[in-house]
Write a structure and sequence with these properties.
CATH topology of the largest domain: NADH Oxidase
Bound molecules: flavin mononucleotide, S-adenosylmethionine
Number of domains: 3
Number of strands: 14
Radius of gyration: 32 Å
Shape: elongated
CATH superfamily of the largest domain: NADH Oxidase
Largest sheet: 5 strands, parallel
CATH architecture of the largest domain: 3-Layer(aba) Sandwich
Strand order of the largest sheet: 7-6-8-5-9
């Protein structure tokens, strides 16, 4: 991405894209070319910034264009002293880095603007600021933000200096009583263009994930107690299994983790009632990444977990079912270990167990199953995995539970039949296992894909295959009476 300079106007580009670019390329600029900036351009930018929002329409900003070289020299001395005093706050490597940073651009910046907030401003009749008088200063910051973007749009850069004694600046500029310095701004043509802040490039402080500053207020469950606040130097990450949906299948340990979490990153397969157990006030981040939909990428989730834990937060990574079963937990554990973040795992009831419980079927029925295998019907690209052990699937003494079957079930069963699996082998699909809308489809390997396709259930589905499934019964009592064994073939299509 390259920032378009003034004059490069592309009429095809919509306004949103332009704003997006402006915001991304707006930098705090501290390295200026010495070239002058025309007065009429400065005038135009200041008048634009003057349109900024202000509390009660008070427009409390007072802008002084500091042209006097003598006054500028006094301000630079003020900055140098303040910078020296601030350095005392740092030690060791951080102090060295602080001393190397360029924290202003007085040397070359052609335009110096002192911005004050007039705390005695009568304009606006006090509206909006009786409860929050500081909104006068906030309004000035709004004006500076508009100026920052407007300057950028004109190809100029702006640097905001706050390492300065505000009273000394007010004195040097003969400011009226009640004027409080908001910032000393340097304006000019940037020497370099950057997408990342200088402080990030020089290793002082990178920006952190948006999610660390965003939370949602959710209804408080009566039994949730407000425990666990951020504050530790380094936090931790706990992968917690939310189970297949029924909140009562949460383990006590999972419940405790939710009730003491500072931040919860949850998948969209996690049943919503479970989120009600999270400690009120915890940051809630939906990192849902169901196949085929736009969502958070795994590396982003890893980075977010690590960054939240680095803030000292107790992070819960809440995953459906058991976190260690088809949940990409390996990548998350590795990311935490690489970052030196403490990581633990609270197991959960996997959906195969939830589904089997609803069917009241033993997946390892001694008469029929010597082996229980969990497979995924879904590779990284959403296709049927190429390396399935088909002889294991065709094994008459095996029960196979197929996770993520929705897209590829027809292909999977077809190939399994080619490899010798009997088409009459019982096959049961369970949608939304353990949830109020649980739906069971009892069928055979030969017919299950067509049946599911026709019903097209919403929500997660898994399919279980094997002779042990002959004993499957659905929740519904009437169905339960009918649903067994030899009747499988004569009663296709039951839901
Ligand atoms: C209120 C405020 C005061 C700032 N004061 C200084 C300062 O005294 N010296 C400095 O080098 N940068 C100062 N900055 C710039 C920030 O350090 C800078 O915005 C931050 O590194 C992010 O970089 P970016 O603006 O390029 O995204 C200030 C920024 C703000 C918003
Ligand atoms: C990414 S995997 C996660 C599995 C999860 N870690 C577990 O142990 O159940 C998602 C798949 O799990 C299955 N699944 C999860 N919850 C389910 C539920 N309540 N009912 C049926 N299948 C479910 C579906 O096959 C879904 O496509």
């Amino acid at each position: 991405m390259t920032f378009r300079k003034p004059g490069d106007h592309n009429p095809q580009q919509d306004d949103r894209a332009t704003l997006d670019e402006l915001v991304r390329w707006r930098r705090d600029v501290r390295r200026f070319r010495a070239d002058a900036v025309p007065d009429d351009l400065i005038d135009k930018l200041l008048r634009l910034a003057d349109l900024a929002p202000s509390v009660g329409n008070s427009q409390p900003w007072r802008i002084v264009n500091v042209r006097s070289l003598e006054t500028r020299a006094a301000i630079v001395r003020n900055f140098e002293e303040a910078r020296g005093r601030s350095a005392d706050a740092y030690a060791g490597e951080q102090a060295d880095l602080y001393n190397r940073l360029k924290l202003a651009g007085f040397d070359a910046a052609p335009v110096h603007l002192a911005v004050f907030s007039d705390r005695k401003a009568l304009q606006g009749h006090g509206l909006g600021r009786q409860t929050m008088p500081e909104t006068l200063d906030h309004s000035c910051a709004c004006m500076v933000t508009v100026l920052w973007l407007a300057a950028r749009e004109a190809g100029l850069g702006l640097g905001w200096v706050s390492i300065i004694d505000p009273d000394e600046v007010a004195k040097a500029l003969d400011a009226p009583p009640g004027w409080k310095l908001v910032g000393y701004l340097l304006l000019g043509w940037p020497e370099e263009e950057h997408l990342d802040p200088e402080l990030e490039r020089f290793g002082w402080q990178p920006r952190t994930a948006f999610e660390t500053r965003y939370s949602e207020a959710v209804a408080k469950p009566a039994e949730a107690s407000p425990v666990g606040v951020a504050g530790a130097v380094l936090g931790s990450v706990t992968l917690v299994g939310a189970g297949p949906g029924d909140p009562e299948l949460l383990t006590i340990k999972a419940m405790k983790a939710l009730q003491s979490a500072d931040a919860v990153l949850y998948d969209d397969l996690v049943a919503k009632p479970i989120l009600e157990f999270v400690r009120p006030g915890a940051r809630m981040v939906d990192v849902g990444k169901r196949g085929y939909r736009k969502s958070c990428k795994q590396p982003d989730i890893n980075a977010m977990m690590v960054s939240l834990a680095r803030e000292g937060l107790k992070v819960v990574r809440l995953k459906s079912g058991d976190p260690l079963i088809f949940g990409r937990a390996g990548e998350e554990i590795e990311a935490c270990q690489n970052a030196g973040i403490a990581i633990s795992v609270v197991p959960g009831v996997t959906s195969a167990q939830g589904g089997a419980a609803g069917l009241r079927v033993s997946l390892t029925n001694r008469e029929h199953a010597r082996r229980l295998q969990f497979i995924t019907a879904h590779d990284r690209r959403g296709h049927l995995p190429q390396d399935i052990d088909w002889s294991a699937i065709a094994d008459t003494a095996a029960t196979t539970v197929i996770y993520m079957p929705k897209r590829t079930l027809a292909e999977l069963t077809e190939v399994a039949l080619v490899h010798g699996l009997d088409p009459k082998t019982p096959a049961v699909a369970v949608a939304n296992a353990t949830r109020p809308d649980e739906t069971v489809f009892i069928s055979t390997v030969g017919k299950i894909a067509g049946k599911l396709d026709a019903a097209h259930p919403d929500g997660p589905v898994l399919v279980m295959v094997g002779e042990a499934l002959r004993y499957a019964t659905s929740q519904d009592a009437a169905e339960q009476a009918e649903a067994i064994v030899s009747t499988l073939d004569v009663m296709p299509g039951r839901i």
